[in-house]
Amino acid sequence: MKSPDNSRVERTQTIRPLALADARDLLALRLANREFMAPFDPVRPDAFFTLEAQTEIARNADGLTFAILDEGELAGLISLSNVVYEAFRSANLGYWVDAKRHGRGLATRAVSALVEHAFGPLGLHRLEAGTLVDNVASQRVLEKNRFERIGLARNYLHIGGVWRDHLLFQRTAEPD
Q1: φ, ψ dihedrals at 20, nearest 5°
Q2: What's the average model confidence in pLDDT over 58-74?
Q3: Vertex 137, ends 79 and 101: CA angle to 5°?
Q4: Is 7 exposed, middle or buried (0-12, 13-18, 19+ CB in 10 A)?
């Protein structure tokens, strides 16, 4: 009897938990995207762009940070943060994709997969995400995943050395 082709499953998988073994690939991706991500990220010290720092990120992923995969290769990260259970059951969603892979639906599929995980096995009720006001591509990713715009947060995050406004989006577990 022929064994199943597991390589096909791995290559079509959208996200998987970030692993310690991803640290070198994560560093390469961070270095390749350092300039591209600068307008969207907090100011990062040079130490962030080292194998030690990326290994620490992978080590501390705690099941809430996932590798975004493109045909089995690391292509970005998607994560949940500020996870609160009890009556709130909510979290913040964040993601980024390699600049060379933009426009191919990777972020849209990754958000869809993480929403399913958050509302399913994690038992969350609400997800929130914020985008820079001018980040239309990220807003489209959220809209395609049925997130609704809920408002403008002035001076929301310290990005690129300045406090920046963000559009906030949310999605709840209830069907539309």
Answers
A1: -55, -35
A2: 95
A3: 70
A4: exposed
**Residues 27-44: tens digit of each pLDDT:** 999 999 999 999 999 999
Q: Supply the CATH classification number for the domain 6-172.
A: 3.40.630.30
Q: Within a 10 A sphere around the Cβ of 121, how many other Cβ atoms? A: 9
Beta bridge partners of 13: none
Q: What is the pLDDT of residue 12?
A: 64
Q: What mean pLDDT is predicted for residues 10-21?
A: 84
DSSP 159: E
Q: Model's pTM, two decimal places?
A: 0.90
**Per-domain boundaries in the chain:** 6-172
- For 65, the token pair is 């940070």
Classify residue 156 as left (phi > 0), alpha (psi -120 to 50) or beta.
alpha
For strand 90-97 and strand 15-17, is the pairing parallel, antiparallel, or unpaired? unpaired
